[in-house]
Every structure is written in C-alpha cells, then in structure tokens.
Amino acid sequence: MGGPKHRRFFERLASFSRLILFDKRGMGLSDRVRIATLEERMDDVRAVMDATGSERAVLLGVSGGGPMSILFAATYPKRTRALILCAAEVKEERTEDWPWGESTDDEFEEIMSQVDERWGKGLGIWTIAPSTSGDEAVRHWWGRVQMNAMTPGAAVEFMRMGQGIDVRHVLPAVSVPTLVIHRVDDGVCHVENGRYEAAHIAGAKYVELPGADHAPWVNGEDILAEIQDFLTGTREPAEPDRVLATVLFTDLVGSTEQVTQMGDRRWRELVERHHAAVRGELARFRGREIDTAGDGFLIAFDGPERAIRCALSIIESLRPLGLQVRAGLHTGECEMMGEKLVGITVHTGARVAAAAHGSEIIVLEVDPRARNEIFDRSGNDDF
User: Which CATH number is associated with domain 241-378?
Assistant: First the structure.
C-alpha cells in the first residue's frame, strides 16, 4: 500500500498548488554523480526553479530535506515564498549538546556496515512508518524504492554527508513565513527538532501532531490539512482515499453445528489453529489482513492472481483440520478509512462469499486471463 499512499499524498498537494518534484543529484532519474553538498543542492533547486519558470516557491523540507530548505530560505529569501518543515531535522548526529540526534558516530558506523546486506530489502520502512508494521506489500515497495533511488554505495555516501549536517546556527536568519509540523512520537527524527526549529525561527507557526510515522505520506491527511490551511487559509474536508484492490472473504462452513458437537473449549482451540493456518497462507501470498470476525477473514491483495492462489491454498491447508471454508473474491475500487477498506466492493465480496458452498471459491470482476491460467494449473473445479 506504500505506493498508492505516496502517490495520493502528492496528488493532494497538487490539488491546491503547482507541485514541482525532482530527483536529487545522484538519485533516481538524475545522473549518477557524486552526492552533492547542501550548497550544491541549493544551486540545483535554483536551476529547477529557473527551468520551470518559478520565480518564488514554497519549500517543503521533509526529514533530511529540512536542512537544505532552511539554508535555501535563509540564503535566498526573495525566491522563497514560504518554508514548510515536516519531520525535519536540524542536526543528525547525537552529541552532548544535541541529545536528540539519530545516532552517535559509533552507532552510525555500525549502521553503515550493514547497508550492503540490507539495501533493497525495505527493512527500514517499519521504522519510518511504524503504522504499516507487518505489511509485507509496503516493505517490498520500499525495497524497490531503495534500489531505484541509488546503489548501496551511494546510499552510504549520502548518509555520511547527512551525519555531519548541523543548521542550528542558520535558523535565526530565516525571515520568510514558516510552518513547522512534527509528530510527537516520531521515531526517526525526534520531536525536539521541530520544537527547536519553531523556537529559533522568528514568527514560525508550530503544529505538533499525534502519531509515530516519520513519513508524511502515511496517514498524512492531518499534515495535508495543516499545509493547505497555511498556504490558502482554507481546509477541505478529508475525502476517503480510494484504491484498486482485490478483496478475499473467507468463512467456515457449518461452524454452528461443529461448536455444538465439540463444545466451546475444543472449538476455540480449533479456531485458533484455523486462524494460524489462514495467516500463514496470507503471509505466503502477501495478502493484508483487514479484519477478522469470528471464524471469517477479510484479506486485501493488490491483484487477483495471488488472491485466488491464496484462497486455494487456504482451502487445502484446512482439510487436515476437518474444516471446510468458502471464499469470495471481488476486484474494484475501495475506500480507505485509516487502515480499513470499505465501500461497495467490500460489500459485494462479502455477499459473494456468502453464496459459496464448502471448499468453493466464487470470483467476480477478475481478468479472465488470470482466472483461466489458475484454473488450468490447479485442476480445481470449485470456481
């Protein structure tokens, strides 16, 4: 879900601004050159502004982008309409005079020694966005982002440059309108960074929000509302996020009769084994557990093929337990309310599952090519 969340965050920004994004020197689609200093990155920002005809811009500095934005606003106030700092750091190294840094030099070197092995695996996403913890789809997406952004060697070089940054002395020189936003339990960039920025930039507006996610695009509607209000003086009511997803509903067949025969204790033990088996299969096929009610599951996938394979595997994994499960799948647009999925697609999936019999899967709105391929390989006629 990381990709859609990331995209929607910037689409919302673009709904009330002219949004200019670019890959920093040495990253993404930019040429693979040495990592630039803060001063060189300021030159790059001016070059992009010139190329796009932007005379004055609002700078949004997130995380490690904060120091460069602070320096730019202090150096080029005539080209800076306003400054927004979101989860932005002022000094990365933890020292005696700055106990809120991310790491000491010794801790930093230990981290750097692991980059080659860990890069591209997306392992850091659950520190950056702890509310997504356990979501394998997000971790895989973050791993792709890492590999597309830069090589492991370039990542080490970039992080070494960042470890030496300290812009505390620059803050009093910032004279443009400034908004500072920080989550109180941010586990990457301590909240004291935001408090320090707000205290040392004259006239800065400070907004402290609940939560621990460092990435603003994760559950970032409150951040977007503050930015929009700061820039436009209005707040639009939050609209539910919409994503294309395949929902899988599973439900045990004949559970009422079984619990009557077995008794509550034995049935509870069997349901626990059922839950463990289902969760094992959804982890295998990278499904995301949305809800569990009694002996049923609602699971989301980013595509129908893995959802159908997962449903088949769930049926087979429960046979040794003497359990029969029915399943229904439907693909369509869903509304996201926090981490929950709602909307007509979810209701349709539930009704489809209710119409199935034991060990039967009913599928709606799936690409026929994917369905036929799975049907041919499985030899299963329970579709």
Answer: 3.30.70.1230
32 and 26 Cβ atoms separated by less than 8 Å: yes
Instruction: Judge if 2-232 and 241-378 fold alike in CATH terms.
Output: no
Write the pLDDT tens digit of every residue in 268-282.
Answer: 888 888 899 999 998
Secondary structure letter of residue 307 according to DSSP: H
Tokens of 336: 């996201």
- Which of 125-134, 297-306, 337-346 has the lowest average pLDDT? 337-346
Per-residue DSSP letter, 323: -
Q: Is the whole model's pTM more than 0.70, yes or no?
A: no
Contact 334, 341 (CB under 8 A): yes
Domain boundaries, the chain: 2-232, 241-378
Site of tokens 């369509």? 332
CB 313 within 8 A of CB 285: yes
- Measured distance CA(145)–CA(372) in Å, rounded: 32
Cα R_g (the chain), whole angstroms:
25
Spatial contact of 198 and 166, defined as CB atoms under 8 Å apart: no
